[in-house]
Amino acid sequence: MRRIIEITESQQATRRSILDWLRVEYEIEKPTLKLRSPIDLDNDGFVAEVKKVRGKKKPLTAVGLKALRDEHARSLEPARKLAAEATTLEHEISDLVNAAYGLTPDEIALMWETAPPRMPIMPPEPSG
Questions:
Q1: pLDDT tens digits for 90-104?
Q2: Can you tell me the distance from the alpha carbon of 82 to that of 38, in angstroms, rounded to the nearest whole number?
Q3: Which of 33, 51, 70, 107 sees the fewest Cβ atoms within 10 Å?
């Protein structure tokens, strides 16, 4: 549980740093919804969102493009790996709770089928 808290704090700090960097270096005052969650974006998606916000009047230079890609690799890729670790831990906790309540596989399946659309975690990948 402590590890998930550490990862969440790290993710929040990374998000704040990236948004501040985009504001200062790329004049992005109002990030898109996707840019507000930069850790969810792969390298190309990150660049595309920055280009979208800047528009045609402020095209990226080759240096600006390289800086975006470099920062994604330096800050966001490690954060994306931490996000995957957090997801694994969240599923482990979910499995422990299900076991503590003695839920059957059918009950667990029903729970996921009826989960609200904004469930904090996605259902586990089917095995097999």
A1: 999 999 999 999 999
A2: 13
A3: 33
